[in-house]
Structure formats: structure tokens, C-alpha cells
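User: hey, got a sec? need Zw10 kinetochore protein folded
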Amino acid sequence: MAASPSLVAAVLAHSGRLEKEDLGTRIARLSRRVEELRGEVCNMINKKYNEFLPSMQSAEDLVSQVDSLSSNIDLLKSRIENEVTQHTLYLFYLTCIELFQFDRAIKDYSTALLEKKYVAAARHLEKARSSLKMLESRKGFELKVLKALGTELTVQTQNMLYHLGEEWRQMVLWKLPPSKEISSAETVMQTELHLRTMPLKEDQIAGPPVASVLQAFAVLGELHTRLKLFGQLLLKYILKPLISYPSLRPLLEEQPDTVILHFESAEPNLEHPSPMEVFGKITLVLEVLHKHLLNVSLDECGENDKDSRVGLAEMLGDMVWEEVSGCLIQECLVYSIPANSSKLEQYVEVIKSTEEFEKSLKNMGFLKGDATDLLKYARNVNSHFANKKCQDVIVAARKLMTSEIHNTVKITPDSSVAIPKLPDPGAGDNLKMQKASKILHNELINLENETKLSQQTFSLPTCHISVSVEKLMELAYHTLVEATTSTDQCCIQLFYCVRNIFHLFYDVVPIYHKENLQKLPQLAAIHHNNCMYIAHHLLTLGHQFRYCLTNILYDGAATFVDLVPGFRRLGLECFLAQMRVQKGELLERLSSARNFSNMDNEENYSAAKKAARQVLHQLKRLGKVWQDVLPVNIYCKAMGTLLNTALSEIINRITALEGAWKP
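Assistant: Yep! Here you go:
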């Protein structure tokens, strides 16, 4: 069904009205929103302006402060520039002064050098050096001229040292042997030392020439080097040769302006010179040096300060004394130590001469302070005597131990070691001995009616020992006798030195003579007797000297009994080893007898006969070399044992044949 036109028109009109109403509403809303936004923007702008206003005021204040500070900086900069300019001018002024002083010092140095006023010239050089150091320390004024000034100063210093060296060579002239090594007294005799005693010309130097030259060396810092070289030559060519070569004698030759020191040779009375003689030679040389060269007091700093002055002799003494004293000890005092205690009292003269020697050196200024190592060594003679004695004893003992064993001497029960009479013990020890004697006497009285032992019960049986071993025991006894008359410390050293002798024998002899002891039965027997002989004396050696040694060794320490088992074992093992060798040879010879079987066979009979003869020959040879060497009882046991070995072997072989014959 179709709609009517009027209805359609009405609907369209209503729609138009609705559209008009909606547009107006919207416009009204937008207008209100615009007003709201405009209000918010205004509020925000007001707020930001309120916040910006204080910041702007602060910025304006900062700009004002910066402007004020900038003006202050400009003012300060202006002032600094003015002050820097003034300081620069001041530094420039100081530099000019230092340059002037350097130039003035060089000119003064040249004038003083021409006039040979060496000390003044050296001090002017040092002033120039000080000025140059000040110039080099100026920062910002690195002048190119400083390098040239340094070169000039170096040249002038070397020129000064050259002139001083020439003066020194004129005052101290060495004439040395062509060979640099001192090998003999003849080489040393070519040495001469020339010392000038006065200037070559009277107007040459204003002051004393030696003092002037040496003080100039001191100012330039070259004195120690120059004096050290002189000390080395003095040691090598004069002082040490005088100590080492007894034939050399210092000879002094005086001329109008020079003193010449050289040597002459004389036949020495002794292999090693006496300390008194050597001290006299050294003193003579040093007195000459002190008189003509070293009697000068110098200022090492070059500042004329009395407190800093030091004697030239003292400086030289500090450089050479250690080597001189060491050489005197090793080449002189060592050989003056007495060989026995009876001569120790005479050594007092050596101590006195050493004291006088050092005193004279102190008077000349070579030494300072208390006693040196030289005097301490001389005063410690007891210790050195003990050390030397022990060393000599050990050397002599070792020489005896390494000598031939086959040179023998016969020992009987009546034999004894020849030693000096022992000194009487002290009163306290004498009382102890008297008490011991009374106890022993009472015990003997109680045994009078009993069976008495033979006087030879504890004696060593008759045998042969090496001559060297007999001398070794004599050396031990004499050393202990020496200990009885020595100081406590020396006594202890000598006692233990004797013990060391026997320890040395135990270690040396079996090794040194090992091959001969194994091959030669006679030497094995002699070595056996030697060990038993030493053990026999060791049993009573300590007791014999017990009351004569120092109290430190009295209470049981002075004994050698602990060494006895070792020596007995040493001798027994050597002889038993030789017995085993002889047994082996006997059995080896009998092994060629073909078991003594089929003696009706000519070859078997000859072999058995040859073996028997070889056995008899061996036994006869052993009997010949052992019979007069071994004690009778040991000889009989040894020969009986070997004979028994041979017979037992023969019987065993023959009885073995009997068993083989049985059906």
C-alpha cells in the first residue's frame, strides 16, 4: 500500500526540525568548552609567569655578580703581570750576578794558578762551580751559554789537576821494577821512593809545597783518590815485601833536596824474621814518610774549619793498616808463637814490642783509638799457642801414620815410653793421692798372705811394633806432659788433641795401608801388635796424668779407656782377615792333591806331593815372618790354627777315600 503525499511531507518537515535543534545544541556546547579552555590557559600562563619571575631575578643577580668578579679578575691579572715583570727582572739581575761571579772566579783562578797558589786556585774553581750550579737551578732561564760555561769549568778543572799531578810527581817519585808481580826479594830491590824535601825554587810556592798541593787536592775532592793510589804502591812495593822477605833491609839516602828510600839485601838469620825486627823496619819507613810527606793537617772539606781538619798520616793509616796488620799476623806473628810452653814467658818481649810499635804509630798519627787486631793477637798468645801446638801435633801424627809399617822395634815387658818426669800435683791433689795410697796400702796388707801375681801379669808380651807407632805414643805422652804445665784452656785443648790423634789413627791407618795389610801377612801381624800396643797404653794413660791436669778434667773426664775396645777390635779384625786369606790359600793348594787317591799312580802321587810341599812352604814362610813379630801365645795359636786347618783337610780327604773303598 502506497503512502500518502501529506504524510511524507510531514515526516520530512519533522526531520528538518530535529537537525536544526541538534546543530544549535552542539554549537552551544562548543562555545562553553572554548570558554573553559580559555580560562585554563589564562590560569596556566599566570602560574608560569609567577614561577618565572623569581628565576629571572636570580639570573639578573648572577649576571651582576659575574660582572663584578670579571672586573676583579682583570684587576688581579693586571697586578700579577706587574709582579711577574718585576720578579723576572729580579731573576735576570741575579743571573747576571752569578755570571759575573763565575767570570770573576775563573779569572781569579787563572791568576792564582799562574802564581802557583794552588789552594786559592782550587777554591776559586769551587766558587765557579757553585755559581754554575745556581745558574742551572734557575727555572725559565735555560741559557745556551750554560753548556759552554760547564765545558770551560771542566777544562780548567782538568788543567788544575794536571798541574797538581806534576807537582805531586816532583814531590813523590816512584821507580818501580819492570815486572808487576813481586816474585822475589831481588825484584823488590829495584824499587825506589824519592821524596822531595824542599821546593825546587825558593819563590816557587808561598807556603809549604806538600801542604799546598795536598790541600788543593782536598778542595777539588781528589785527595782520597790520590792518597789511595799512593797507599797501594806503598803496600805492594815496600811494606808487604819488608814483612815477607827477611833478607830485605830499608836503606835511607839523603841528598840536598831529596830523600831516597830503597832496599838492600842481607843473609837472614832465620827462615822467618822476629816481630821486633819487622816492627823496626816498618817504623823506619813510616817515620821517613811522616817527616817528609805525611806530617800535614788538612781540611777535607776545604772550608778552613778547625773541627774538620784531619792528619794526612791518619788518612793513610785508615787505608792501609788493615792489610798491614793482617800481613804482620800471617807472615810474622804466627811464626813467633812458641812451640812449647816453656818458651811462653819469652813471648812477653813480643807483646811489649807490639805495644811499643803501635804506640809509635799512634804518636805519628797513623793509628787512633784502642788496641788493634795486631796487639789483640799478640796478647792472646795462650790460645794461639794451643792452636798451633795442636796443629803441629796432628800434622806430626799423620806423618807417622802414613810412614812405612815394616820398620819395627822390639817391645819387651820391661819397655816403657821415654817421657819427662811429670810435675808434682797441687796440695789438694796431693792429699787425694795420699788418701788413695793409704787405701791401696791397706788393701795390699790384707793380701800379703795370698798368692801374689807375677810382676809381668799386666805387661805387654814381647813382640815387634812399628817404629812410627812407638814415636806416636811418645808424641802423645809428650803432648800430655806439655798440657800439665799449660793454662787451663790450653790444657783442655792439648788433652783432646791427644784423643784426636788416636781417632785419626783409627780412621787413617786401615785405609792408607789397606792394600799392604791385605797382601802381606807380616804387616798384618805388625798392625795387630800396633793396635794392641796402643790399647795397652790407653788403659792407664789417663790415670797417669789425672792428678796433673786441670781440675776441669779431673773428675773422670781425663780418660782414654773408652778407646781401648775399638783398637783391640781394629787389630784383631785385620789379623783374622789375614788368617782367612792364609786358610784359603792352604785349602786352594790342597785342592790340587787329587783327593790323595790312587797314590800308586805316578801323576796322582806327584800332585799330592807337590800340594803337601806347597802347604809346608807356606807354613814355614808364615812361621818365619810371624815368629819374631807376634807374641808367643798369639804366634802359637795362629800357626796351630793354620796347621790344624791343613791337617783337617788332609784327614777329611783321606777318610773320604776310605768310605769310597767299602763295597
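Quick note: The beta strands are 172-175, 192-196, 248-254, 258-265, 297-299, 309-311, 408-411, 463-466. Let me know if you need anything else on Zw10 kinetochore protein.
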